[in-house]
Amino acid sequence: MADTLLKVSRLHKSFGAVMATNNLSLDITRGHIHALIGPNGAGKTTLVNQLSGDMQADSGTIHFLSRDITRLKSYRRAQMGIARSFQITHIFENLTVAENMGLAICAGLGHNFKFWRHWRNTAAIKSELPIALERVDLIHRAELTARHLSHGEKRQLEVGMALVGKPELLILDEPMAGLGPGGTVELAKLIKKQKGRVTILLVEHDMDVVFSLADRVTVLVYGENIATGSPEEIRNNPVVRKAYLGEGG
Amino acid sequence: MNRKQITLWCGAIILILLPPFALQTGSPYLLSLGSRILIYALAAVSLDLLLGYGAMISLGHAAFVGVGAYTVGILHFHSSAAEPVLTWPFLFTGSDNGLLVLPLAALTAAFAALIIGALCLRTIGMHFIMITLAFAQMLYYFFISLEKYGGDDGLSLAARNSLPGLDLGQGSHFYYLCLAALFLFLFFAHKLVNSRFGLIIRGAGNNDRRIKGLGIHSYRYKLTTFVIAGGSAGLAGALLANQTEFVSPGLMHWTLSGELMVMVLLGGLGTLFGPVLGAAVFLLLEETLAMYTEHWMIYMGPFLVLTVIFAKHGLFGFLSGDKEKNG
After folding, report:
1. What is the CA radius of gyration of chain A?
2. Which of B198, B212, B326 comes nearest A74 by C-beta?
3. Do B207 and A90 touch (CB under 8 A)?
4. Are residues A77 and A2 located together in one domain of the fold?
5. Smallest Cα distance from B204 to chain A, Å
6. Which of the four, A33, A55, A102, B126, has the lowest number of CB atoms within 10 Å?
């Protein structure tokens, strides 16, 4: 019996007449890289938003660590160990790289009503900041304002921030989108390094990346889970081939 | 020493040396103008915490200036009428003692900010701007209708508050009190924005959704900032009441909120020290332009527009060569 970290049951979400999530059930096993693929408009980001708490489901349940989190707010879910990166890069553009990472560390420190001492002089930040920056190869960029980073570096920073809190589940929403081939390789290496340490839900378009990294793959079409299995099973699944792979290549 | 530090030291030295200079040249009006600049600067710096760091665009900051000023006015009124402010649930008499009145003004304004902030911070963007404005206007009309405290005409103070060892009736004593208040607050605010608390406020100002994604409940941090800013605006109001020896509902009017906002933008949003410069330039321009025309705003407007367009971080950013804000 596999150790289930996240369990989604019969989830529904519609926008007017559009069923963005349709009777969707999904189990994510601890330690896996679980990929979520599907054509444009399949409802991948909508599902991710419901998992992270940025959107509320219409019906159905989400269990995380065997607790019902369906109605929890996003910051409560983050405290429980769900970290996410966004499809559109989502960092603090006006703050420096170090400050961005510092904020991610602060998030794990309980309350932050510390008004006097410089934020860098907190013991936890002093010890963790260099490690966190090193992990995503950004230590030489620490004092740069984040908006001046290259696109790939912004992604690295974002993933690095998500990893700081030692999350149970890391949701990466199209991390490779808009990256050049070099950036994609870098980031894939970085994700692979985390394999086994953290459970990852990877939403991705790039099939090479998905099939090289994932332990399990779920295919979403029109908000429905049409198939879940190992990369090999998915590659050979006739329904999937027809609905998705056949079209996209 | 870099350019920013040189700018700051020059500013501090000018402010410290103003009273002896005014005395030498026999121009005491400089002292009252200087005091006014310091008081407005204090209010503008507190507003900068909201605008420049937390991106909370409050158009009702004058409400807290007014609450602070009325605390001074009302306590003075009851002290000279020898009639207690409260008899129930405890006896509370009026007072002119600055040691009591000034902190109380800040606390009252902070309390008002706690209530108003708790409601306003549930909204964002345009709604936040409008609801802060609405609360300030509500207080404005409330004080207009308070006949006992002068209503529309306001309250006159017979004398300034008393402080041990100081004679606030003397221009230079009062000036240095304002200067000390401003310096202390700047020091505190500078520490604040670079602390862990400040980092979270700056993060929330930059990208509130991301802060929540990190698991930080930004509402409490924003509310605390709102209360700190409200309290220090209240202190500015209390000093202003002492400076003019007069309190009126006009202090709560949205035009004062707007003027404070202009000072922040002029001096440099998110620079803390910029709003001091902004207050000085604004009041000096007002003073000189008003000598030539009563429509001095006609000249102020284009000046503000040009500053905002060409000096991205305001006059302070221009002087200090500061390219990044929040520094």
Report:
1. 18
2. B212
3. yes
4. yes
5. 9
6. B126
pLDDT band at B43 (very low <50, low <70, confident <90, very high): very high
Q: Residue A64 sits in a domain of what CATH number? A: 3.40.50.300
Token code pair at residue B69: 């000023």
Chain B's closest residue to A91, CA to CA, is B210
Residues from chain B contacting residue A121 (CB–CB below 8 Å): none
Same domain? For A178 and A248 the reply is yes
Helix (H) or strand (E) holding A248: helix A246-248
pLDDT for the residue numbered A245: 60
Are A101 and A117 part of one and the same domain? yes
Question: Which pLDDT belongs to residue A95?
Answer: 95
- Mean pLDDT of all residues in A35-42: 88
Count CA atoms within 13 Å of residue A44 on its CB side: 24
Q: pLDDT band at residue B241, thresholds of 50, 70 and 90? A: very high
What is the domain extent for residue A70?
Answer: 1-81+168-187+195-249
CB B196 within 8 A of CB A111: no
Q: Search chain B and give the residue with CA nearest A81.
A: B215
Q: Which of A27, A82, A33, A25 is nearest to A57 (CA)?
A: A25
Cβ–Cβ under 8 Å, residues B165 and B177 = no
Report pTM: 0.85
**Any residues with CB less than 8 A from the CB of A51 and at least 6 apart, and which?**
A6, A8, A62, A82, A84, A171, A201
Domain count, chain A: 2
Q: What pLDDT does residue B85 have? A: 86
Interface of B with A (CB under 8 A): 191-192, 194-200, 202-203, 206-207, 209-217, 221, 224, 324-326
pLDDT digits (tens, 9 = 90+) for A160-186: 888 887 889 999 988 888 787 888 888
**A94 to chain B: which residues are within 8 Å by CB?**
202, 206, 325-326
Name chain B contacts of A145, Cβ cutoff 8 Å: 324
Query: Are A180 and A61 part of one and the same domain?
Result: yes
